[in-house]
Write a structure and sequence with these properties.
Layout: E1 2-9, E2 15-24, E3 29-38, E4 43-53, E5 57-68, E6 73-77, E7 81-84, E8 89-92, E9 101-105, E10 110-113
Parallel strand pairs: 8-10
Antiparallel strand pairs: 1-2, 2-3, 3-4, 4-5, 5-6, 5-7, 6-9, 9-10
């Protein structure tokens, strides 16, 4: 993962925090106000006007996006816009209620709005 921005390290050596992050990962490209990467669990948490794109999905203006490198699961939170870049079925799990989260696992043929 290549991240640029202002780096600060937390109390544990397994967490890296980057402000105003621009990231080129193995599976995605992203920009965010802040990135926290948990090296032990291989989880990237992006917050603050997040732009996140993979070969399958593009997410804009999310409050938070979490990517788990082990499970390849992406969750987007907040008031965001999105578009599928390949044919993927979008399953609305809560009907007409407000949607504030999307789940998608890289390689799956469905994404879930919750």
């Amino acid at each position: 993962m290549l991240a640029s921005g202002f780096n600060s390290y937390s109390q544990t050596t397994s967490t890296i925090t980057t402000e105003n992050a621009s990231i080129q990962g193995d599976y995605y490209t992203a920009e965010a106000g802040k990135m926290v990467y948990d090296q032990d669990n291989k989880i990237t948490e992006l917050t603050g006007d997040v732009y996140f794109v993979t070969n399958a999905i593009e997410i804009n203006d999310a409050d938070k996006v979490v990517f788990n490198e082990e499970t390849k699961e992406i969750t987007a939170h907040g008031n965001f816009t999105w578009r599928m870049r390949i044919p993927i079925e979008v399953v609305d799990t809560n009907g007409a209620k407000t949607r504030s989260m999307m789940r998608y696992k890289l390689g799956d043929d469905k994404a879930y709005l919750e």
